[in-house]
């Protein structure tokens, strides 16, 4: 793990190459069920191709100067569907339809038809491959139990809380294996806690804590307002409806989107026990921000969070961006963090 202040990281995903996925198809949806047609290569060549693209993603992050890298989530069709549909009790082949997170469209989701259990490792190979291919601190991400419970149609459990707790057990079993495989940081993606804050207040913290039980490496809970390419800025609220409650989780860090929505960072006072992964890259802006622009966003964060508690990051995953843009933004962020680090060290 980096020992300097203001270590940089990514939320998780990095752009998948056009030769690997049909990006035009991907741009229309964040899939909850499997989207096998997205992949351009036949099954017999797909794993090798995904390995190659993963190495490209890792090297880009390293060249950009990122301190805590991921595998770019290259093998995933979305941040959540690959893990969710690999569980027992989940029927992803005969989906149900629910209202999408944006509230104005219907989206197909897996159905919960029996006891949810982890059949076996899902992301273990991903973590092992990442660990073999970088000497930097390595982070792996998992979909959070609350979010997965909201991205499925419950046809088995008595209520959504019971479903979320079953999912939390499955996530925990996976996280323990990922920790053994060399993960330096484990992150849960929980963007839906702000989408349904009333339910989240009932059991999201309980489910998150169950999912992180026994994890001794640093842990993160990430929440955002949605991919900039899918959820326009005009549809994004100005603040989080579920944030202060996350101070009660066992997670070490909370990751928030702040650059695009121009979030009032005064909200960070409610997370006094946590390190903050602060979104300082606006992923809705097709331009690569200047080093000075990103440095100003970091300095703004430092008005509310001490340097030892601030981790600069993009607002969200970068999978929907052009690769050259994603790389340029990461390089600007790394250079900006180094600039501010020099000012305060």
UniProtKB/TrEMBL annotation:
Keywords: Metal-binding, Methyltransferase, Transferase, Zinc. One of its GO terms (biological process) is methionine biosynthetic process. It comes from Bradyrhizobium betae. Pfam families: Meth_synt_2 (PF01717). SUPFAM superfamilies: UROD/MetE-like (SSF51726). This is 5-methyltetrahydropteroyltriglutamate--homocysteine methyltransferase. The keyword Metal-binding applies. InterPro entries: Met_Synth_C/arc, UROD/MetE-like_sf.
């Amino acid at each position: 793990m980096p020992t300097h202040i203001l270590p940089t990281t990514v939320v998780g995903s990095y752009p998948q190459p056009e030769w690997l996925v049909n990006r035009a198809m991907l741009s229309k949806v964040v899939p909850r069920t499997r989207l096998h047609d997205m992949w351009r290569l036949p099954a017999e060549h797909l794993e090798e191709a995904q390995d190659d693209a993963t190495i490209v993603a890792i090297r880009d992050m390293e060249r950009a100067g990122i301190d805590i890298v991921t595998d770019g989530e290259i093998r995933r069709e979305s941040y959540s569907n690959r893990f969710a549909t690999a569980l027992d009790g989940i029927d992803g082949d005969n989906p149900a339809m629910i209202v999408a997170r944006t509230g104005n469209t219907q989206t197909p989701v897996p159905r919960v038809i029996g006891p949810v259990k982890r059949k076996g490792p899902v992301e273990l190979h991903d973590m092992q491959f990442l660990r073999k291919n970088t000497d930097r601190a390595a982070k792996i991400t998992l979909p959070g139990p609350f979010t997965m419970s909201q991205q499925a149609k419950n046809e088995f459990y008595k209520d959504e809380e019971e479903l979320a707790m079953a999912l939390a057990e499955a996530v925990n079993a996976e996280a323990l294996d990922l920790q053994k495989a060399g993960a330096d940081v484990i992150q849960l993606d929980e963007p839906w806690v702000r989408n349904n804050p009333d339910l989240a207040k009932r059991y999201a913290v309980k489910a998150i804590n169950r999912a992180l039980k026994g994890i001794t490496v640093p842990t993160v809970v990430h929440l955002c307002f949605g991919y900039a390419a899918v959820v326009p800025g005009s549809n994004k609220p100005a603040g989080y409806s579920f944030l202060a409650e996350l101070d009660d989780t066992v997670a070490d860090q909370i990751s928030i989107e702040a650059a695009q929505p121009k979030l009032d960072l005064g909200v960070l006072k409610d997370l006094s026990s946590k390190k903050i992964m602060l979104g300082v890259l606006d992923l809705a802006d097709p331009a690569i921000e200047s080093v000075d622009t990103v440095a100003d966003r970091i300095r703004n964060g430092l008005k509310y969070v001490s340097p030892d508690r601030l981790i600069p990051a993009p607002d969200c995953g970068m999978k929907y961006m052009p690769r050259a843009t994603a790389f340029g933004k990461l390089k600007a962020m790394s250079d900006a963090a180094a600039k501010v680090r020099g000012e305060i060290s």
